[in-house]
Amino acid sequence: MKMQKEEKIVVVLLLMALGSLAVAEWTFGSSDQSTGTGISDSSISVEGHVLSMTTTKTGGNLIFQLDTINNSIFVPSGSGAKDIQGRVHSGDNVRIRGMLSEFNGKKEIKVSRSADVEVIRS
């Protein structure tokens, strides 16, 4: 059975819609509430330009934003926050690897070591 042009378009549109829903669920879906931690085991890698970097008032942790995602990137002080703050600046294009986690009901990317923040172009 040969599909007509319109049928092919409908199939492609349906596949695109399903793909979009899968990405939305992965990005914004609810975390597993049975453990109470709200932490996911999903590793993630993102690239983008650094919009802002701030140090937390207590603990010396680092939080920054990229232009490509709405989630914050969190670097604990024990994971190289000072090292990253010394070599990454606003406007730099960076690649970040971390774990998708949740803090105060919002998803964030938690970096576990300074080597996971790579400056591509400054």
Oligomer category: single chain
Structural class, by secondary structure, is alpha+beta
Largest sheet, strands/sense/barrel: 5 strands, mixed, barrel
Number of strands: 6
Integer tally of domains: 2
Q: In order across it, which strands form the biggest sheet?
A: 1-2-3-5-4
CATH homologous superfamily descriptor of the largest domain: Nucleic acid-binding proteins
> What is the CATH architecture assignment of the largest domain?
Beta Barrel
SSE string, helix = H, strand = E?
HEEEHEEE
Global outline: elongated
Helix amount? 25-40%
**Structural Rg:** 19 Å
Mean pLDDT: 84
Uncertain segments: 31-39
Question: How are the elements arranged and paired?
Answer:
Layout: H1 5-28, E1 43-55, E2 62-66, E3 72-75, H2 81-87, E4 93-103, E5 106-110, E6 117-121
What does this structure look like?
The protein has helices at 5-28, 81-87; strands spanning 43-55, 62-66, 72-75, 93-103, 106-110, 117-121. The protein has 122 residues and is α+β, with helices and mostly antiparallel strands. It folds into two domains: 1-30; 43-121, Nucleic acid-binding proteins (OB fold (Dihydrolipoamide Acetyltransferase, E2P)), CATH 2.40.50.140. The chain is elongated, with a radius of gyration of 19 Å.
